[in-house]
Amino acid sequence: MANNIPFQAMGKTTLINVTTSANTVAIISDGPASQLRIHNGTAGEVFIRLGITSADAAAVPTAGNASYGLVLHNNQTNIFTVPKHATNTATLYLSAITASGNAVIYATPGEGF
Hints:
Elements: E1 8-9, E2 14-18, E3 23-27, E4 33-40, E5 46-51, E6 70-72, E7 76-86, E8 92-97, E9 103-111
Antiparallel strand pairs: 1-9, 2-9, 3-8, 4-7, 4-9, 5-6, 5-8
């Protein structure tokens, strides 16, 4: 459960190369982690989806068509509560996609805000 403390990393940071095709990666934590800190250090927006299977792919929403794509604005860091704990035995999946161009995001499992 999230604590009212600053973010505490509880695993390795994963670098994700993002393109116009969804890239889904496994996030594994050293212990039970309820949050994921994600940094989009590029100039473009990235759309993400947190899921419990590798088939949970992110998609870019378009006018009139909702999709599983939560926007990460350029050069920002956000902390998200995950749909299940990431642990060293249970995998959380992070999928990312761009509407155009390439991007790089970094994801770190942990606790806090």
